[in-house]
Structures are given as structure tokens and as C-alpha cells.
Amino acid sequence: MLVREMFYKISKQIIIIIIVLCNFINPSYSSIKKNIINNLLKTNNLNFDFEQKIEQKIEKGKCTIKYPKKIYCIYDNLYKKIMISNGKTLLIKNLKNNYQYIYPLKKTPLEMILDKDYLIKQITNLKINNITDDKISFVINKKDLKIKIFFEKNTNNLKGWETEDIYQNKVIFNILNINTNQKIDNKIFRLPKLN
Fold first, then answer.
1. Superfamily, domain 38-189
2. pLDDT digits (tens, 9 = 90+) for 72-91
3. Over the stretch 36-61, which tens digit does the pLDDT of each residue have?
4. Rounded CA gap, 102 and 139, in Å?
5. Where are the alpha helices (DSSP H) in 74-191?
6. Which of 48, 141, 175, 180 has its CA 20 to 30 A from that of 154?
7. Strands, DSSP E only, in 69-134?
8. HSE on the CB side for 27, CA within 13 Å?
């Protein structure tokens, strides 16, 4: 009888401790999500340097994102590759030899990554996947697609993403030196004449 009472008392204390800990943890996660969402709501565009890693290959360059669904990136490599989305179509063009690839944006992960409203809705409903010293991540699963979205812990700015390309290679896109809500020329999102 005495053992049963002690067990009951200890079990009750453990449950109280768990409830108290959950009340401390959940509001802080809720606050983190709220800060990220508020920052996204205030952000109309982003200018940044990037580093993209596909398998073992690393490429660098500069990008501009304008919500919703527009991106312009120029790669700092021998081929001077550009990537442009006008909100509907994604063009990847190699300026040196004029090769180009055209995709409907909706067939790529960028359809979701470049849609601020979609990100806000997902973040509202998702649990935080991971928090490190400098990053907060969320995982979006849609059909057969898995996207990890990263935000900078201190500024709540978009920090990058991880996904797979059309060849099922792991792609990690890191955003560096970000500036938000800068004056941009909308002409950069126009697709060049197609060959």
C-alpha cells in the first residue's frame, strides 16, 4: 500500500513537471513562429548573395526575390548561368553557350519557396523542425516533395532551403548578406527571348 501511494505521488509530480515544461517550451516556439511570420509579412523583396551546393558541386552568385514567385539569379561561374522566374515560368540559361531550360514554375519547389503567403500558411501549421545557434528550420511535405526552409534565428530572415532537383540530387541553397525591401528594377524578371 505504501509503495502504491509513493508511486502515485511520484507519477503525479512527473506529470506536473511535464505540463510545466510544455507551457514553457510551446510559448517560446509560438513566439519564434510569430516573429518569422511578421517578418515575412513586412518583406516585399530580398537581395542577397548565395551559395548553392548540389551533391559536391558548389556555385555562388547573387539573387533578387520579389514576392510573389519572382526570382532573378546570376551565377558567378564560367558559364554565367542565369535563373529567372516571372511568376509562372522558370528559365535557366547558360549565357556563354546559349543553352536554356524552361520549366513551368508549378513543377518546381520554387513554386512554394517563392510564395510568401504559402510559406506563412505552412509555418502557421507546422512544428519547428530544428533550432540551432543560427537557424530555425521547418519541413514542408507536399506529395512526393520535401522542402526544408531555413530562417536566420536573430533576424527571422529567410536563410535558405534544402530540396531535390529534377535529377533527385540534394540541393542546399544558402542565403548570405541579405538586404530586404530594396528598390529593384522589375525588368529583371522578364524572360529573355527564347531561342
1. Lipoprotein localisation LolA/LolB/LppX (2.50.20.10)
2. 999 998 878 999 999 999 99
3. 999 999 999 999 999 999 988 999 99
4. 27
5. 110-113, 116-125
6. 141
7. 70-75, 81-86, 89-94, 100-104, 130-131
8. 5
